[in-house]
UniProtKB/TrEMBL annotation, chain A:
It comes from Musca domestica. Transmembrane segments: none annotated. This is Ras-related protein Rab-10. It is a lipid-anchor. Belongs to the small GTPase superfamily. Rab family. Coiled coil: none annotated. InterPro entries: P-loop_NTPase, Small_GTP-bd, Small_GTPase, Small_GTPase_Rab. The keyword Cell inner membrane does not apply. It comes from the Eukaryota. PROSITE patterns: RAB, RAS, RHO. NCBIfam families: small_GTP.
Automatic annotation (TrEMBL), chain B:
InterPro entries: Endo/exonu/phosph_ase_sf, Ig-like_fold, IP5, IPPc, OCRL-1_2_ASH, Rho_GTPase_activation_prot, RhoGAP_dom. The keyword Metal-binding does not apply. The keyword Nuclease applies. One of its GO terms (biological process) is signal transduction. It is found in: Cytoplasmic vesicle, Phagosome membrane; Early endosome membrane. Its main location: membrane. SMART domains: IPPc, RhoGAP. Residues 493-658 form the Rho-GAP domain. This is Endonuclease/Exonuclease/phosphatase family protein. Keywords: Cytoplasmic vesicle, Endonuclease, Endosome, Exonuclease, Hydrolase, Nuclease. Residues 12-311 form the Inositol polyphosphate-related phosphatase domain. One of its GO terms (molecular function) is endonuclease activity.
Length: 204, 709
């Protein structure tokens, strides 16, 4: 295991009210399995999953947080290290949707400024119990300029694509940073510098 | 991935055409080179074309000419098989030697890497008239190497040729990421003018006899290369196909006749093609007699090579499976700890009583696991709140082992201030703390420390104490939280009963209070005894019983009552008060304090002054400790001068000399109290106060309290 088996490591965080299905989403993504028994997460668990995006092996380290209210203050200290945050609500639970705003504020206060965010409306297989329409989910995401997907960990809807989309958004940013560090850029800059005096003399 | 190679690797046949020609410094523009390069039926996939003696001029040798000859390359491209579209992949040259690799366009994208390298073996091993040039390339998953070498000449120089061979094998290292040598390839083709000659066969005369058509078989027995290879002196592991052509050297240029010059050089198989590696089948090996410009004849060989090729579809499938497996293994091997409980409920927690709870943590995985409690972010910057102790905070668990963790909670003089602050400011359900047990390279487990704090008078502000309508023991945590957050200016009493009870008791003790309020009073030594809790209960129940302790303990309780609230008694005017020069000036500010604080201050000063006057305590010590308590700095900086400043401030209020000033100020203060409280005096009749009778017994300075009655 000493050999590095990946090109990039992205740290992602799952947050949202208790019982919205954060652990199930992670379990579906990492183990491709689902269990309907509810076990409250008391702390922070993580799983890894390697995906390939644009020829790069990307190791996702996904941190699953406790959703219970008494842990809210303590879990915010984990926001800082995250490059991407999945904010999950339950489409059958109005309160969990209303709390999205609160969670977003938390992210603003505690996460890195350039963190990539995505809102997930989970349990979208439970159509007969739905209380939050897809349109409302889309609206709040649009309002905050955040990606949005409805998912179902149980029926395996959009789980993989959600993580890949978030990872890709982070990759875009990382790639941008890499090209900025590219030595070729220096050459271009130098050329610009050479041009600068000529431009000046042109003006004067 | 390597282990499962068989699941996604298949072999694909490629035709490789190797050719060599010692051109003897001649131009070949008009030669029928297609006879040499298009002799195969099907169009080959890859050509490796080797030339020697391209230019053996002194100038070329001296300057190590290494620019590929494009006239030649053009001619080659014109002469290759006409059933395929070809392009040059790369060429490499060293003086007379040039190696050009030409590939079919359709397989170009299967070549993912190519490198070239030259090595000189001429005079002093530095000149390039002899030596080798080579091309290394990766075709699908296979690495191929083509070597064109021109080894040492002349009949007697067999050993020099062997040495040249070894020199090239050892010395030629490609500049690729792996620094491959020739032998680091799957398929190697060694082409060139190797210059091995034919030893004089007994009974055969030079040169004519050797030119007979079927002499090859006889001659080859005496071929130096074959002899040396048999002896293991060179080309270990290489194979050469059967030779069914005449010696390719040395001819009179323009003819098929062997050397007729004076030198009468013996004919020889100088020009050879050898290979090394598996899955190579030779399809043809021949020379071309009809190209006559040189003193050599050109030679070619055609091979079918099964090239290791990745099935992309299968590869992707296997790759995904392997990644999944690795992830799964990593997830499953994550260290795990089982914690006996994640909620530690201490139940009712009382002031100045330590409670202890133990819980176990067990190793739940087949390896040693480390864990520690995570240090929390500043401002706390510790693993737990002030009122908790966790031991051990860091530990290693061997396989199958279990350890016990002890959590101790003490709401005492050191921690009550911050505990009450946390109770006051917690928005949702209050927990004493949440510990984070961090498994090394594993999950973090939250351990909630909960329970209910049973309020006591200690640590509560004078204002809060003046809002109570029953003894503290009758309040619960939530009620006291509400009371702490109550900011209305209405108070039920003019000063806290608990304060009054202590002052009253001390006052009645007369000379027995001697030894109270000494410099070490702020160490709160009495509070560390269990008996002190009787005093706590006496105060928190507004007891009518006799005071359950000594006057010295009561004095300490009084200091604690004033010291433990979040803000000092003279807050928010502490800094301003320290700047005042006169008592009158200070009293102006004191009159702005909330009425409970103001009353407590005035009352306290009168009480202390009386004790000092009667020489029960040392005025200097009293001023020092009360200066530290009432003017406590909220910025934890212990400044020696500030300490003196506080003491001097207090002295102004409690020393005899200033008596008159204080009296006049206090009367103004009490009148201020009166005006402040006029409107709700009716709702807080002092008659309601227990021990109201003792009010009267407080002489002199009790104006403020008595005033209300």
């Amino acid at each position: 295991m000493a050999k590095k088996t990946y090109d990039l490591l992205f740290k992602l965080l799952l947050i949202g009210d208790s019982g919205v299905g954060k652990t199930c989403i992670l379990f579906r993504f990492s183990d491709d399995a689902f269990t309907s028994t509810f076990i409250s997460t008391i702390g922070i668990d993580f799983k890894i999953k390697t995906v390939e995006l644009r020829g790069k092996k990307i190791k996702l380290q996904i941190w699953d947080t406790a959703g219970q209210e008494r842990f809210h203050t303590i879990t915010t200290s984990y926001y800082r290290g995250a490059m991407g945050i999945m904010l999950v609500y339950d489409i059958t639970n109005e309160k969990s949707f209303e709390n999205i705003v609160k969670w977003l504020r938390n992210i603003d206060e505690h996460a890195n400024e350039d963190v990539e965010k995505m809102i997930l409306g989970n349990k979208c297989d439970m159509t007969d119990k739905r209380v939050v329409s897809k349109e409302r989910g889309e609206a709040i995401a649009r309002e905050h300029g955040i990606r949005f997907k409805e998912t179902s960990a149980k029926s395996n809807i959009n789980i993989e694509s959600a993580f890949c989309e978030l990872a890709e958004a982070i990759l875009d940013k990382t790639a941008g940073r890499e090209s900025a560090e590219n030595p070729e850029r220096v050459v271009i800059d130098r050329r610009n510098n050479e041009k600068a005096p000529a431009y000046k003399s042109c003006c004067s | 991935m390597k282990r499962r190679e068989h699941e996604y690797i298949k072999y694909k046949d490629f035709t490789i055409y190797c050719a060599t020609y010692n051109v003897n410094n001649k131009s070949y523009i008009d030669s029928p080179l297609h006879l040499w390069l298009a002799a195969s039926e099907d169009a080959p996939d890859i050509y490796a074309i080797a030339l020697q003696e391209l230019d053996t001029s002194a100038k070329a040798i001296t300057f190590s000419e290494n620019r590929p000859d494009y006239m030649w390359i053009m001619k080659m491209l014109e002469s290759v098989h006409d059933k395929g579209e070809y392009e040059e992949l790369t060429s490499v040259r060293l003086v007379g030697m040039m190696l050009t690799v030409i590939v079919k366009r359709e397989i170009r994208s299967s070549i993912t890497r190519h490198n070239v390298k030259t090595i000189a073996r001429g005079i002093l091993n530095t000149l390039g008239n002899k030596g080798g040039v080579a091309v290394s390339l990766q075709l699908n998953e296979a690495n191929l190497c083509f070597v064109n070498s021109h080894l040492a000449a002349h009949m007697g120089f067999v050993e020099a040729r062997n040495e040249d061979y070894h020199g090239i094998v050892k010395g030629l290292v490609f500049d690729d990421e792996l620094r491959r040598t020739i032998n680091d390839h799957d398929h190697i083709f060694w082409i060139g003018d190797l210059n091995y000659r034919i030893e004089e066969p007994p009974g055969l005369q030079l040169p004519v006899a050797r030119s007979t058509a079927h002499s090859a078989e006889i001659l080859l027995k005496y071929d130096q290369l074959r002899q040396e290879m048999r002896k293991g002196n060179c080309f270990e592991g290489y194979t050469e196909g059967p030779i069914n052509f005449r010696p390719t050297y040395k001819y009179d240029p323009g003819t098929d006749n062997y050397d007729s010059s004076e030198k009468q050089r013996a004919p020889a198989y100088c020009d050879r093609i050898l290979w090394k590696g598996s899955r190579i089948t030779q399809l043809a090996y021949n020379s071309v007699m009809d190209i006559r410009q040189s003193d050599h004849k050109p030679v070619y060989a055609v091979f079918r090579v099964s090239i290791k090729t990745r099935d992309d579809h299968l590869y992707k499938k296997v790759h995904e499976e392997v990644l999944k497996l690795l992830d799964k293994r990593e997830n499953e091997s994550q260290p795990q700890i089982i914690v006996e409980k994640t909620i530690i409920d201490f139940g009712i927690v009382r002031f100045n009583e330590t409670v202890v709870s133990d819980f176990t943590v067990s190793n739940a995985c087949p390896m040693q696991v480390g864990f520690e409690f995570k240090r929390k972010d500043p401002p706390l910057n510790a693993i737990c709140e002030k009122w908790l102790r966790v031991e051990p905070w860091k530990e290693k668990l061997m396989i199958d082992s279990t350890k016990s963790i002890r959590v101790k909670l003490s709401a005492n003089v050191d921690s009550i201030t911050s505990l009450l602050q946390k109770i006051r400011t917690t928005n949702w359900k209050f927990d004493f703390d949440i510990l984070i047990l961090q498994v090394e390279n594993g999950p973090h487990i939250f351990i909630t420390v909960t329970g209910e704090y049973k309020p006591s008078c200690f640590g509560l502000s004078m204002e809060t104490l003046c809002r109570t309508d029953r003894p503290l023991c009758e309040y619960d945590q939530q009620q006291i939280k509400d009371l702490m957050n109550d900011e209305s200016p209405e108070f039920r009493v003019t000063m806290p009963r608990e304060f009054f009870l202590l002052i009253d008791y001390l006052h009645k003790q007369g000379p027995k209070v001697e030894g109270a309020f000494t410099l070490d009073s702020l160490e709160f030594k009495h509070a560390r005894n269990v008996e002190f809790n009787d005093i706590r209960d006496w105060l928190d129940t507004w007891s009518n019983n006799e005071f359950p302790g000594t006057p010295q303990a009561a004095a300490e309780a009084l200091l604690m009552l004033l010291h433990l609230p979040e803000k000092p008694l003279l807050d928010p005017y502490v800094d301003d008060l320290l700047k005042t020069k006169t008592t009158a000036e200070a009293m102006e500010l004191v009159s702005l304090l909330s009425s409970p604080k103001r009353n407590v201050f005035v009352h306290l000063c009168m009480f202390l002054r009386e004790g000092i006057e009667r020489k029960y305590y040392n005025g200097m010590h009293v001023a020092t400790i009360f200066g530290r308590v009432l003017l406590r700095s909220t910025k934890k900086s212990d400044d020696y001068y500030r300490d003196i400043n506080c003491r001097e401030f207090m002295q102004r209020f409690i020393s005899n000399g200033e008596m008159s000033t204080l009296s006049s100020s206090s009367s103004s203060a009490s009148s201020a109290t009166g005006s402040h409280h006029n409107h709700h005096r009716a709702t807080t009749p002092v008659a309601k106060m227990k021990n109201s009778a003792s009010n009267a017994s407080l002489s002199g300075g009790s104006t403020a309290a008595v005033d209300s009655s």
